[in-house]
Amino acid sequence: MDQFTLNLLFVGASFALYIGIAIWARAGSTSEFYAAGRGVHPVTNGMATAADWMSAASFISMAGLIAFTGYDNSSFLMGWTGGYVLLALLLAPYLRKFGKFTVSEFIGDRFYSPTARMVAVICLLVASITYVIGQMQGVGIAFGRFLEIDTTWGLLIGSCVVFAYAVFGGMKGVTYTQVAQYCVLIMAYTIPAVFISLQLTGNPIPALGLFGNTVDANGVDTGMALLTKLDQIVTDLGFAEYTAAHGSTLNMVLFTLSLMIGTAGLPHVIMRFFTVPKVSDARWSAGWTLVFIALLYLTAPAVGAMARLNISELMWPNGTTGEAVSVEQIDNDPEYAWMATWQKTGLLGWEDKNGDGKIQYYNDQNAELQERAAANGWEGNELTNFNRDILVLANPEIASLPGWVIGLVAAGGLAAALSTAAGLLLAISSAVSHDLLKGQLTPNMSEKSELMAARISMAAAIVVAVLLGLNPPGFAAQTVALAFGLAAASIFPALMMGIFSTRINNTGAVAGMLAGLVVTLVYIFLHKGWFFIPDTNSFTDADPLLGPIKSTSFGAIGAAVNFGVAYLVTGMTKETPQEIKDLVQSVRIPRGAGGAIEDH
Amino acid sequence: MSQNNAENNAYWSANVRLILISLAIWAIVSFGFGIILRPLLSGISVGGTDIGFWFAQQGSIIVFLALIFFYAWRMNKLDKQYGVDEE
């Protein structure tokens, strides 16, 4: 069976599974559509939340981000997991107790202000829509590479599948499909990692192999630690030492903190905790979510380091002091076949600049390596293009793993992108039908028409997502910073103050959210261009406005501004009414969580 | 009613205390061991690098997991102790 048939088989089987679940789990009421009837077991919910959270970025890009910078990008690992501690301790149980359907609804009720609710809805929509564009592009890339069909068709097929289970099943359909998608994506991520870890270190657990010794071709311990070897090879080639810190400590702390707060403030993640039956389940469920996320996040740094080692050794088969790999070998040796496959996608490129028949891969900006290059007649780095995103997708081929593993990785990449897209679309549709229509425009809408409205807004959201995926705005790559910045600076502080303070009033909350939002947006725009229009920026992230603080790290400062302004303005305005103080007290006490459902 | 309120306040203070302790550990393992204190701990080596690198890429995630489960277990006990658990 050839590789194409294998890929088709794996992707086709996974899609059939998702559609089967969609037919089984149709939603009959708004409670099922928005919160899966609040009947989801905490472990099941944890698995679904993990799939919801782990996007194409986690699956495809994260290992690459770590592989090419090493220690400095540990922020992604700590930030994207540490946020769950905040979620579990500070938000999830109380929002579950509150017992409504959307994040903006809590903000609107707690701060007794439709304005506060609208500010939250706008933040939610901007964050979710920018995020969904990236998922759609991920779907297109995965289809394009593995099934050799046009990106446009890939996107259309992918969105039809999402349509099938998200529009009919709502949260219920999405939850159970995400459980299946989690299983597919975690197998696709860990199986190749286990093989590669065995090849390089003899240890079947990649997270342990990362800190183990390397083994030779016969599996005999060489006595040299993998990370020591990697450090040596990359520094020999003029790159920065893998395990050392290079950037500013302050920026790393703020960046990690921004990712943590942003994670805890992303509405499509928070709303998952509305689906469990009890407050105590919401606490457990956050833990289970992190268990399932950690399986991938503990493996990712091993995948990154091992792939970097593999690639460096492939380019320098005779060691870093010997001869580089020859063009002839790349063209003919089956071990290098993946290079030609990925060259076709435009994500990998090499060029024999000095015409010596060899491809020298090194850092041509490094003074020491420039000397060596001059002595040997090299004319610059000849591995001219290496897109970080192909690392995970090409990893099984780089390590010469069997064909079925490659098919599995294809299905896994699609599962990661589709599950996150569905979660985001659900957040968008509930914001439109529940917060905008039911909450503002037509409060007397019957449950049946609200359910219909939810389905129509979901379908509309899918169409918008496909259009944006097909014609991504030039700023698509920058928008992750925007989504996290918005969530960190506006939504997280508002929710936290709503629960932990009885004092903060409506004016304070609105002023705080707007202040946090505005300073964060302005800081991002100053560095990335106003509304991401190229060349309108006054600063760059290489030389930021405030010391070492890059625009991606500013969310934490935006959150601090939000807290500060909210406290100041509250002190100057009318006190919170007693019934709101009672609401806060009731949210803090788990007893009576079941009753809140019947409010609806 | 007032006695009930006092109970609830005691429950809430116990919760806030537990949160503060947990968040202190959360910050020490990630921002502390993983980033700021890494140079101080560089003498402790782990598999070809130092313990700070391990905390940044593995250890903090494992501690986060333990923290969430510890908090859930403690709080579910506190709920019962103060009689505010769900029936």
Oligomer classification: heterodimer
Radius of gyration of chain A, whole Å: 25 Å
Shape of chain A: globular
**Structural class category of chain B:** mainly alpha
- Through-space gap between termini of chain B: 20 Å
What's the arrangement of strands in the largest beta sheet of chain A?
1-2
Count of distinct structural domains of chain B: 1
Gyration radius from CA atoms of chain B, angstroms: 18 Å
CATH class of the largest domain in chain A equals: Mainly Alpha
Give the arrangement of secondary structure elements.
The complex is a heterodimer of chains A (600) and B (87).
Chain A: H1 3-24, H2 30-35, H3 42-53, H4 56-67, H5 74-98, H6 103-110, H7 114-146, H8 151-201, H9 206-209, E1 213-215, E2 221-225, H10 226-236, H11 249-265, H12 267-270, H13 279-297, H14 300-315, E3 325-326, H15 327-332, H16 337-344, E4 348-349, E5 358-359, H17 367-376, E6 385-386, H18 390-398, H19 403-441, H20 447-470, H21 479-500, H22 506-528, H23 555-572, H24 578-588
Antiparallel strand pairs in A: 1-2, 3-5, 4-6
Helix pairs in contact in A: 1-8, 1-19, 3-8, 3-13, 4-14, 4-18, 4-19, 5-11, 5-13, 6-7, 7-8, 7-19, 7-20, 7-21, 7-22, 8-19, 8-20, 10-14, 11-21, 11-23, 14-18, 16-18, 18-19, 19-20, 21-22, 21-23, 22-23
Chain B: H1 2-36, E1 45-46, E2 49-50, H2 51-81
Antiparallel strand pairs in B: 1-2
Helix pairs in contact in B: 1-2
Describe the structure using short key phrases:
heterodimer, A: 600 residues, mainly alpha, Sodium/glucose cotransporter, 3 domains, two-stranded antiparallel sheet, globular, disordered C terminus, B: 2 helices, elongated
Q: Overview of this structure, please?
A:
The complex is a heterodimer of chains A (600) and B (87). Chain A has 600 residues and is an all-alpha fold. Chain A has three domains: 1-88 and 98-110 and 134-315 and 389-472, Sodium/glucose cotransporter, CATH 1.20.1730; 316-388, no CATH class; 475-600, no CATH class. Chain A contains 24 helices and six strands. Chain A has helices at residues 3-24, 30-35, 42-53, 56-67, 74-98, 103-110, 114-146, 151-201, 206-209, 226-236, 249-265, 267-270, 279-297, 300-315, 327-332, 337-344, 367-376, 390-398, 403-441, 447-470, 479-500, 506-528, 555-572, 578-588, and strands at 213-215, 221-225, 325-326, 348-349, 358-359, 385-386. In chain A, the strands form three sheets. Chain A has a two-stranded antiparallel sheet with strand order 1-2. In chain A, strands 3-5 form a two-stranded antiparallel ribbon. Chain A has a two-stranded antiparallel sheet with strand order 4-6. In chain A, helix 5 packs antiparallel against helix 13 and helix 6 (103-110) runs antiparallel to helix 7. Chain A is globular and about 80 Å long. Chain A starts with a helix and ends in a 12-residue tail after the last helix. Mean pLDDT of chain A is 88; it is low at 595-600. With 87 residues, chain B is mainly alpha-helical. Chain B has one domain (2-81). Chain B has helices at residues 2-36, 51-81, and strands spanning 45-46, 49-50. Chain B has a two-stranded antiparallel ribbon. In chain B, strand 1 (45-46) and strand 2 form a beta hairpin. Chain B is elongated, with a radius of gyration of 18 Å. Chains A and B meet through helix 5, helix 10, helix 11 and helix 13 of A and helix 1, strand 2 and helix 2 of B.
